[in-house]
Amino acid sequence: MANPQLHLLELNAKTGEVFLRLRKFPNIILTPPRWEDEPLLIPYLNDPRVCDWLSGPPYPYTLQDSKDFLARIKPPADEVIQHLKDADPAAAPIIVGECPVWSIREVRGSEEVFLGGISIIRCENGELMGPNGVDWENKKKREEENNALAVGDPSIIWTIGDWLAPSHHGRGIMTDVIRTLLNDWAVPRMGVRHVWATAFTGNEGSVKVFLKNGFKLVTTHENHVVVKGKMRGLHLLEWQYEG
Ligand SMILES: CC(C)(COP(=O)(O)OP(=O)(O)OC[C@H]1O[C@@H](n2cnc3c(N)ncnc32)[C@H](O)[C@@H]1OP(=O)(O)O)[C@@H](O)C(=O)NCCC(=O)NCCS
């Protein structure tokens, strides 16, 4: 029997790897990041249909960037899986501070084709967390305060980052990824109750994905930040758990 502490993750019978299966697209799964993903990120994160809408990944995106990224996200994902496996299987499922899955993969027969990434992490828009609108001066301090809140604290502000291979855009996949991740992992297993999502102005697809998942558009800041040499406006969307 599967370890109840892994609840709502499934186990790959062949490899023992955990995964989360999408609700509407059961052939698409979310798995932990794998080292073999390193070269697979590169074409997508250099494709303007993807990278123009992301603030995090550098451009041009190199193999070294990919190695650095996976070296940063893989250990915490592996640690949280181990932590879950080590927890008392007879106790109620524990609340954890990290999401163990990141890679979006399509199962095609015996193959699992890499399609993109999804993350839920503590919010990195501290400039928007103060009481008086945009406040760049206290950005770091606000993020540190949010990061200092204990695992499971319902007042933590989380954020979601996502991208998908252009070959699969517009099929409803990311809407399902976020619905599944929120409801089948983040809420029950991380205690997530409050999420901010941001999207550059003009990113209609991303805004729609969040709206379809119950997020509300809070504000739009024109000329908010320079990213990769270009001034960008930012939509802020918010989701709160309603029980
Ligand atoms: C934004 C992104 C994640 C959307 O993923 P997706 O799987 O294509 O989105 P979905 O198919 O679930 O679309 C949800 C809705 O948005 C619409 N939509 C998707 N892309 C759109 C676009 N470029 N313009 C307008 N509407 C769009 C869909 O038609 C759908 O609406 P409907 O249900 O009324 O038909 C994907 O386009 C992507 O990876 N973009 C590049 C990276 C990115 O922008 N990441 C988000 C950063 S904030």
From TrEMBL:
GO molecular function, one example?
acyltransferase activity, transferring groups other than amino-acyl groups
User: Could you tell me which residue ranges the N-acetyltransferase domain spans?
Assistant: 71-233
* Protein name from the UniProt record: N-acetyltransferase domain-containing protein
Q: Which organism is it from?
A: Cyclocybe aegerita
Instruction: Show the taxonomic lineage.
Output: Eukaryota, Fungi, Dikarya, Basidiomycota, Agaricomycotina
